[in-house]
């Protein structure tokens, strides 16, 4: 009888530790997210399942072109690509991104740019036209979806405060045929 109680207690402890460990990992380090919509096509598809690395920006700063998840004003979580960092001047002209006057390649847009026949994929704009400021404010990021014509992003909701960023999303784990690291 004592042996059964001891064995039950050991199993209970193991289960409690496993649940606590899973909660800590999910809350502080990694979390699953489901892509909802077409705003990140062709890079991400609707219903792709990804891992959000919540730890990514606690040890370092975000990089331009990282894909991030953040709390949007509509009480939803959005997934978008970082285009502008604090202090950057952002401009699009002739379907080319200019950051602080320097042109940047965006190879993740090549597939869509080839399909567009009725104008540019990304309409021309300056940061001042979109947010009323010449540079991305300190502590904020300017983000855009890869599907530029059909993305609600910083052009519409303004720059994203860093404290609203949940983390970076760089791994698709479902569906199985799409498992990969995304850039």
From TrEMBL:
EC primary class: hydrolase
The protein's Enzyme Commission number: 3.4.21.89
Gene: lepB
NCBIfam families: sigpep_I_bact
Transmembrane parts of this sequence: 14-35
UniProt GO molecular function: serine-type endopeptidase activity; signal peptidase activity
Catalytic activity: Cleavage of hydrophobic, N-terminal signal or leader sequences from secreted and periplasmic proteins
Active-site residues per Swiss-Prot or TrEMBL entry: 39, 80
Domain of life according to the entry: Bacteria
SUPFAM superfamilies in alphabetical order: LexA/Signal peptidase (SSF51306)
Family: Belongs to the peptidase S26 family.
Protein topology in the membrane: Single-pass type II membrane protein
UniProt GO cellular component terms: plasma membrane
UniProt-listed Pfam families: Peptidase_S26 (PF10502)
Alphabetized Gene3D superfamilies for the sequence: Umud Fragment, subunit A (2.10.109.10)
Name of protein: Signal peptidase I
PANTHER family attached to this UniProt entry: SIGNAL PEPTIDASE I
UniProt keyword list: Hydrolase, Membrane, Protease, Transmembrane, Transmembrane helix
Secreted among keywords: no
Any one Gene Ontology BP term: signal peptide processing
Domain Peptidase S26: 8-174
Compartments, as annotated in UniProt: Cell membrane; Membrane
Keyword check for Iron-sulfur: no
């Amino acid at each position: 009888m004592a042996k059964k109680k001891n064995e039950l207690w050991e199993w209970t402890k193991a289960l409690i530790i496993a649940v606590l460990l899973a909660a800590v990992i999910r809350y502080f380090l990694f979390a699953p997210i489901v892509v909802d919509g077409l705003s990140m096509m062709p890079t991400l598809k609707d219903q792709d399942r990804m891992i959000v690395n919540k730890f990514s920006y606690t040890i370092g700063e975000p990089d331009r072109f990282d894909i991030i998840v953040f709390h949007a004003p509509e009480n939803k979580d959005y997934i978008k690509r970082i285009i502008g960092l604090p202090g950057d001047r952002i401009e699009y002209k002739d379907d080319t991104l200019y950051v602080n006057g320097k042109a940047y390649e965006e190879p993740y847009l090549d597939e869509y740019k080839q399909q567009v026949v009725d104008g540019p994929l990304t309409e021309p704009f300056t940061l001042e036209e979109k947010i009323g400021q010449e540079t991305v404010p300190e502590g904020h990021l300017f983000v855009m979806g890869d599907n530029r014509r059909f993305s609600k992003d910083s052009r519409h909701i303004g720059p994203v405060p860093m404290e609203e960023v949940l983390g970076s999303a760089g791994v698709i784990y479902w569906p199985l045929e799409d498992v990969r690291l995304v850039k």
